[in-house]
Amino acid sequence: MYLSRIIGQPVFDPAGDPVGKLRDIVVTVRSANRRPRVLGIVVEVLGRRRVFLPITRVTSLDGGQIITTGVLNVRKFEQRRHETLAVHELFDRQVTIVGSVSGTVYDLAMEQDPRRDWYLTRVAVQEVGKRFGRRGATHTPEWSEVMGLAEQDSAQGAQHLLSTMDEMRATDLANALLELVPKRRLEIAAELGDERLADVLEELPESVQVEILGVLDPARAADVVTEMSPDDAADLLGSLPPASAEQLLGRMEPEDADDVRRLLTYEEGTAGSMMTTEPVVLAPDTTIAEALARVREPELIPALASMVYVCRPPVETPSGRFLGVVHFQALLREPPSTLVGAIIDDGIEWPRPESSLAEVANLLAAYNMVALPVVDDGKRLVGAVTIDDVLDHLLPEGWRETGPEPALEVTDA
């Protein structure tokens, strides 16, 4: 059974209820000549938590249907020294097949022996293409016929590993990277596209963000920072030495750099330091049909799509005079030809850039909102604070590394 068939597939209990998704296979690599024994699987449960399930608790892998005994220990998986993650650590290894054929590992097969123990038995290897744009020949030799899998420091890319992660949300991919040793984490980050890497960086702790940014070429690092939300980019650059931050800002497009520089001027823990400068800003003569088209844009997070902000021109932050907001539900209630200026809500004392975290949190809670406009003393819109950024500051430091705590722990009897 090749691992690419089962990675990412749902894991079920005996009653057929899903308990999580299979994210990796844990094996013990003893030598180049002895087949690695499969110890268990890594299952992602409860959103982001990854737990270990011994292979003896897996009752079926037929047809990609992963069924367990139903007994699950939900303590967070911690890799031991003798354990290897087959997908994250062996995929994309540069290896040599007996006979001097070199290539890259793109899959692994595991088989069950008569005693019902599972082992990695075959290695799917793709040769380097001899002509530009052409893929090389593929081979599936036995484990013992491949050199380069038992060595810890073998060259390794991430192309085939990332193909197993295409459908993972940025938060889940960030969580997966946190589980890896720094060397492998940096290898994978280097293979991600700029936009995808930017999304993942936004979900990582600042220390890991800096670690990854530090190994990128300065020009590419600037491109990645440009793809980040301005508020997240400002948080990241604020944690860098001033000279490094200024170097990156100098490589960014002037308009993007100006937004980030403006956010860096606000004191930590204020509305200004948490806000994004890219909410949906519309002129009052915009129709509801146009407003709905704007909030349907896929790159908008749900909190930013919850309302539009109506201002006199210019309609980029800092805008002309801020007139008020129109909630998404209000857009749905009115005819498409209605102008947004006719249904504005401006009955709240909106936060200023210097407003504290507590003041912003109180307003969100009091008015049951997931985003708030931030206006300056001249009644201009300068940005919007979303609830995810408020929670990011309210949760304990380091919450991204620990992930959510399980509501219920079921352990072996």
From TrEMBL:
Transmembrane segments annotated in the record for this chain: none
Keyword Iron tagged: no
UniProt cross-references to SMART domains, sorted A to Z: CBS, MgtE_N
GO cellular component, one term: membrane
Taxonomy, superkingdom: Bacteria
GO MF term list: magnesium ion transmembrane transporter activity
Residue ranges annotated for the CBS domain, each copy included: 275-343, 344-402
Protein name from the UniProt record: MgtE intracellular domain protein
Species for this entry: Aeromicrobium marinum DSM 15272
